[in-house]
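User: Can you fold this complex?
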Amino acid sequence: MEKGRPMLRWVGILCVSMAVVGFGLNALGGKQGSIEANKVGADLITIDTLTKFGKLDYPVVRFEHDKHTKAVEGKCESCHTVTGNTVTAKFKRQEDTNAAEIKAIYHDNCLKCHNDTTTAGKKSGPGSEQCRTCHAGPAETSRTPIAFDKSLHYRHSSSKMMLPAPGQKENCSKCHAQDKPEARNLSFAENKDQTHEKCMSCHIEVGKALQPSGPLVCAGCHDATVRAGFKKVADVPRLEAGQSDYSLLMATLAKPSSESTLVKPASEPTLVNAVPFNHKLHEDKNENCSVCHHNASTKGVIPCSQCHTSLGKEEGAFITTEQAMHRVTAQTSCVGCHAQAQAKPECAGCHTFMGRTGKNTDASCAKCHVEISAAPELLESKDVRNNTASMLMNVRVKTDPEIKVNEIPEIVEISVLANEYQAGKFPHRKVVQKIMEGMKDNSMAAYFHSDPNAVCSGCHHNSPASVNPPKCVSCHGKVADWQESTKPDLKTAYHQQCIGCHSEMGIQKPAATACADCHAVKQ
Amino acid sequence: MEFMTLHDFMFWTKGMAYIGMGVGLVAFVAFWLFLSERDEDKFADTEEE
Amino acid sequence: MSHHTTPSKTLWTPANILTAVILAIGLILTVKRFTMGLGSVTNLTDDNPWGIWIGFDLLCGVALAAGGYTTSAAVYLFGMKKYHSAVRPAITTAFLGYAFVVFALLYDLGRYYRLPYPLTIYPGPTSFLFEVGLCVALYLTVLAIEFSPALWETLRWKKLRFWAHSLTLVLTIFGVVLSTLHQSSLGGLYLLAPSKLHPLWYSPYLALFFFISSIPAGLSMVIFEGRLSHKFLHHKMDQTHIDEAPGVTLGFAKAAAVVLFTYFNLKWIGVALDNNWHYLSTGWGTWFLVEMLGFVLLPCLMYAVAAREKNQKLAFWASIVTVLGIVLNRLNISLVAFNWQLPTELRYVPSWEEIMITVFIVTLEITVLRICLNKLPILHEHPEFKGAH
Amino acid sequence: MKRRKFIGMLAGAGACMAASTATAGGTHHFTGYPESFGVLFDSTKCIGCRKCEAACNKVNELPAQPVPFDDLTVLDTRRRTHHDTFTVVNKYSVNDKPVYRKQQCNHCLEPACASACFVGAFVKDKTGAVSHDASKCVGCRYCMIACPFEIPTYEYHDPITPRVRKCTMCQPRIEEGKLPGCVEECPKGALVFGRREDLLNIARERIRKHPNVYINHIYGEREMGGTSWVYISGVPFEKIGMREDLGVTAAPELTSGALSLVPAIVGLWPMFLTGAYALTKRREKIAEEEQHHAVAEAVAEAQAEAAKKTKAAMDKAEREKQAAVDREVKKALKEAEEARLKAQTPADPSEQ
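Assistant: Here's the predicted assembly.
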């Protein structure tokens, strides 16, 4: 057995090395967690508090809130500090002090509870050795932010649990840092934690009073399907915050002075470029003030131009007035918001095809921008401006463009390409009527399509709108030519128009691939 | 010689390299023979001993 | 090697009968493959164009035939005369190994009859496969000449025998050069498929890994075969072979230990260079560790102990583990970890016919080897040429 | 001894590490054929009508398919190219909306298949097409291993003349000034044929004009060093079965480093090995000489010893001879004396 002993020694060493490697893996590995990101309900929270203290040595924690709420029988205090009726959003602490401390707080409390539960013989979460069961990296959840729309706001403000403080008539201060709407300070909370503390504390309190109260589980607010079930108040009274119905948006004007180029003596009236704006209308059309007055929740309601100056400044993230009004990708800009509206099926048929950047022609600018004489009083008094705006708005044509039905060709036979398929019979009038119908009593559509042939140019594009536009074939060649690769050939053009429009407008029949439904197969 | 793609370039250069290798190997043997021709105890590519 | 090659009067030993059966089936399948196409016998698909005929017959075949260049280099270049008796068996197995690799290749190639194309009329120098083809062809020739003396001796063609022998040195050097190149190039083949080969196995060092691992593979085969022939062909061996055998085994064991150790370290550097650590905690990682610890580190230590304690038996077992390890590695790269992202139903599993043909080829090789060892002066010196090398 | 071999090996390894970083062209930079053609596929326009498949089948005179091309049920199963279908359209459901994706050879600017082929059967043509010459093909199927898009396919059923088959981008038609079959037949403009540069601009323009429709990525602009077919889509490409983890390294660059080592090895190994051999030889020689020397000395000593012995013997013999001579001389003298005395006595007694 002389030979055996050293052999054993070696095997021992091997085993140890294997063990070491095996142990090391837990620390090294774990990327596959993020490889398949599993989608879970609205209550799946990612605990990433430590990220603001620097690089993490483990992936962030996935935490299912509902599961834990259930485990502690809905006793918030078992995880959150509850003082009186206010609940702290943070776990077992008031504020984030430093990484080490927070880490300790989480590890000690989580693991302790898990261990206790296990020793109590109940099913429980992972212990100290299964790091990556909790540290599983970010996960995709179905959670979506809740938009506090007018209806919701009304239901809260009009709630009998929200009566104004004795001796006061307004109850804004129940939630907002203000007493009167005129204060126009919408600030509700600084951050997520504050928001949750405010909402939940109140919901709990009301709940304790055995009154119908707001949701306490994540899904209650953050699940789209649940929100869809919310009671909607049909006509919410306008929220009076001293705002004017009409306002005249103008580039900030220099005060009248000798060297001012903009304003000349009244003798020769100078024209300024202004946009009359119907504030009241937009209030109706939008969910709440914050849609346009974004950041209102923290900064209060302030004019756009305060942050978005003509040159841009830091408060406005260096977004100039021009961009703030016209950036098409922005939700809060005029053009962006109108573009959103074009995404509605009734509009998308034509507008998706036209693209979002639009045609920057004078005509399209003139839809909003008007040149008015910069009379001094206009510059001085706000009321004058507002009145001018209202006047300008009210002279605008907002009637649906009248197209005489009998002038619309009823059937257009498209035979120019007929080969393996017969000529297609295109129900032209039916299509136009369908489109018109989509724009019915929609003031925006009515205004922006007010030019009689505007609608036609949805299909008869790139040529001056007229009652009898040129034929498609006059631009689109019958045979494809790669040198014209930006311009589709005739067949492609037709199919793109018809099928594109149908799919955008969500018209199921005829299906895009049901060739014979539009043009019968030649026998 | 004009090459449009890296592949063409490699096709040519690597081909050249292979030819070079062949020549090099043969040359090396010849050179070795030349080098060790006069050694009294032949280092040459004859069998040992 | 077949297990009862004792000199039996009758040919009807179980081994021979088994061999005969396998060969018979093999021949039938051969006919099928060459008349009804690859598809008729293989499970190859458009997703998995290379099966075990490449993964095992080619990759493993070449790796395990590395004994030829390692041994001859050790003896002729590094002057380990005391291992001289190991050269001929090693060369023989290497020669047959390569011969049958090429033979197996004919089965796998769609147009086998065009095999000479790359080396003659249509060279494609950008391809590592061209590299492999060129070197294998040349090396096969080299081996043939190195092996031929055994033949000339039996035929007593003295002139040829001495001519062939006079080339020993240059052939050995060529052998090492060519082996280095095509052993590594086999790994180089997979450099082109980083998106298909699992990151743990893919590395810019692939070529280097294949070359280095081929050395212990070759040495292990020599040890392995040496021991077997010692057991079963004892009567064929002359005193020199019998006396030198232990020295060969232990010397090679030591060498193999060193190289395996290097290989083990380099593999980890490979992982480090691409920062693939996180994969180690996946299922693939476990499999990789099995290969690395169980089939590289373990045999390495076994060899080390064997060399330290002059324990031939252990060395023999180590050689088996090493050989298995090399086979595992080659199969991992060519089949297991290749196309790892494909859904299971699209992964490749060899058909029984493919396996059968592989078995057939291996059996054929062993049979030929047996005949050579029995009929040719390989395990013993030819009486008329004693000490003539 | 082994150790030296091992050192040699490390040297080789060192060389590998050094050169594996070297790029093939050095300072050379290749931008592909100028004005080469390509096709832009716009997945937002594709309606999955399989007209392109039908056209491809027709212009390439491929065998008739079991399922007719107007049967769209096949779209529900995942399909790939085969020896008798150079292009397939697959349907993917992304957020419950069908998205279609056409699959065919992407005609890489630096084709992996060409770089893999050991008979140079693949050629990147100035038209942009990557063509395969079956008359050279040996059937090793390495191209299929190499292709990151899994495009080349094989006629496994053919025992004698199996071919590698793939989309040709209709190179012959292009040379006649016609469009590729699939592009010509596409009713929806999902396929646009043109100079690759123009196509990239069209793609960028569409993305710019429809920021809400497209994701901002032109697939094939840089993937695997760029492809002649480029793609834009409304959904992330990996959601429609296009791998986004291929990287932007052109295939030849993957092997050029290692390939450039081959000559290095051919150059270095003989040097190392003959060196090793020479050292071995020298060592043996020295050993030999030492042996000779030892033997010589031993012999010399033996001789000296022998010489001494003989000398001693001779001296002894000499001495004995001398002694014998002396003895004889003395004896003779003695006798002579006695004789003289005897003669004197008789003459002296009468006189008395």
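The beta strands of chain D are 37-42, 88-94, 97-103, 122-124, 130-132, 153-154, 164-165, 191-195, 229-232. Residues 261-344 of chain D form the longest helix (84 residues).
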